[in-house]
């Protein structure tokens, strides 16, 4: 099994000087998006299973003295 030095150099600092920062050219991630993929937008909304019915959050009871 061979080890690809291009992929391992991005996560491991150089052995001659472990404190030396990794150059930006080695950190760059490959473009994984292809032409046939579309960007997906996710919109988060609260969902109420009883939509259409009004449910009071605080129920107050009126007492007649």
TrEMBL record:
Name the record gives this protein: Uncharacterized protein
Annotated region described as Disordered, given as residue ranges: 1-37
Highest taxon of source: Eukaryota
Record field: compositional bias (Polar residues): 1-11
